[in-house]
Write a sequence for this structure.
């Protein structure tokens, strides 16, 4: 697609983002709420996993986290002060259904009503994710993501959520990062539940996740009311050409399609490709009639969590070749987070070109550091400020080249429970002192606040 190269699209002289560009911040229930066993909430797989010795840094648990459960009003007031108009949050499945299915916990429903009302009172638009990793432990005990029981329970949960909150929520995200709660959780085993399964079962976890995505889309379409919009948030493997030459770009494109063949590839193609099925062989997922009619319903947007990527070039044999990162390649304190701002450009562009997605949102982007404590009320996270500037420039380059990006959510509003890295790793633009629960906006919060206000990179 030549128009992308030297497209001649004039940069907006003022350097602004498109009118109505959505700026926001993101977080997830399990990482901030705390109140892990309050008012009837059931145990999640992360409540269990964090108590297994050696699984989470420092033995940290989600029990208290940022105590957002009790402090959401002051958190929303702070968001408003910083000029946040859009907030991506998730609903805790075990808070609504303590055992995954069965009886509904009305106290959980009431809590999210209070929370959504408080947000709206501060002028903040909710973007709600149905599932951000906190599977009810009771469902894991019945097979978790390897079992169709989870799909059935999720379908019911999704309907409940839309029925309950559809009057207040118009922007829905079905699932967050399928790869993490399947592959990282049932194969690599660094995330909850950390249970190694066979290759066939692993492929089935992907398929079950796709079905749940489909059920959430269906629930929004059937029950979401006027103006409801829905999409998936994916963490595709992003392939970045080593040089921006036609040969390396073609290699990156091919590799990107191959790496994402089982998730986005299947959703957008309406089925598994013969290539993928051949790769799986006897371990291919079991597909029932009608599965892909559900999975591949059209959505309103595609959400992308963009953090890092893989460099690819055209190899000597004409095949794509991944280039391993040298030890000196810059990296955040999160050891997986190599700092390649062009992930924003290629992540959005390849999704648009490969799948024809016509509305993209960056639903997460940010960086994890072991930030210094607050000194005289300030945290000088210049590293995060520069990260944002560099990444947003690459996002703007994509937009200026015609890639349809409609919004950006920074991860994360405040420091929080960073899964297996516990509380050591901080992604927030607002510092949290976990001993006192005091919130202090970092330098990056003031910087991002100016970006949102001016709709341009300052
Ligand atoms: C992606 C996940 O969605 C989020 O929960 C996590 O904290 C960030 N990445 C940073 O690792």
């Amino acid at each position: 697609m030549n128009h992308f190269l030297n497209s001649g699209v004039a940069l907006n002289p003022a350097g602004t983002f498109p009118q109505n560009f959505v700026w926001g911040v993101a977080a997830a229930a399990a990482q901030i709420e705390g109140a892990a066993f309050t008012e009837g909430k059931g145990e999640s797989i992360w409540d269990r996993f964090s108590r297994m010795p050696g699984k989470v840094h420092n033995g940290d648990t989600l029990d208290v986290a940022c105590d957002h459960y009790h402090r959401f009003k002051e958190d929303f007031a702070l968001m408003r002060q910083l000029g946040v108009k859009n907030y991506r949050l998730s609903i805790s499945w075990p808070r609504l259904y303590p055992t995954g299915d069965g009886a509904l916990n009305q106290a959980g429903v009431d809590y999210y009503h209070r929370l959504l009302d408080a947000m709206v009172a501060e002028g903040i638009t909710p973007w709600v994710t149905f599932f951000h990793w906190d599977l009810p432990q009771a469902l894991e005990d019945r097979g978790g993501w390897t079992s169709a029981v989870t799909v059935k329970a999720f379908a019911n949960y999704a309907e409940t959520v839309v029925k309950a909150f559809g009057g207040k929520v118009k922007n829905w995200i079905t699932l967050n990062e399928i790869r993490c709660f399947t592959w990282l959780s049932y194969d690599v085993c660094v995330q909850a539940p950390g249970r190694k399964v066979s290759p066939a079962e692993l492929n089935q976890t992907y398929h079950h996740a796709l079905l749940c995505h489909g059920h959430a889309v269906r629930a929004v379409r059937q029950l979401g009311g006027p103006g409801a919009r829905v999409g998936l948030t994916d963490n595709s493997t992003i392939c970045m050409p080593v040089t921006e030459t036609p040969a390396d770009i073609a290699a990156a494109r091919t590799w990107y399609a191959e790496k994402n063949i089982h998730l986005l590839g299947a959703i957008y193609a309406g089925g598994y490709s013969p290539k993928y099925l051949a790769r799986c062989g006897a371990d291919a997922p079991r597909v029932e009639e009608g599965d892909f009619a559900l999975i591949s319903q059209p959505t309103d947007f595609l959400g992308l969590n963009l953090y890092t990527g893989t460099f690819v070039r055209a190899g000597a044999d004409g095949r794509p070749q991944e280039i391993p990162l040298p030890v000196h390649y810059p990296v955040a304190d999160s050891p997986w987070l190599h700092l390649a701002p062009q992930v924003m450009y290629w992540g959005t562009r390849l999704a648009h070109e490969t799948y024809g997605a016509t509305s993209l949102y960056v639903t997460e982007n940010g960086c994890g550091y072991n930030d210094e404590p607050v000194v005289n009320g300030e945290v000088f996270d210049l590293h995060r400020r520069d990260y944002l500037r560099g990444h947003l420039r690459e996002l703007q380059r994509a937009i200026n080249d015609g890639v349809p990006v409609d919004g950006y959510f920074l991860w994360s509003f405040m420091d929080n429970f960073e899964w297996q890295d516990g509380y050591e790793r901080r992604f927030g633009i607002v510092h949290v002192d976990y001993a006192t629960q005091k919130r202090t906006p970092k330098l990056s919060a003031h910087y991002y606040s100016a970006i949102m206000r001016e709709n341009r990179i300052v």
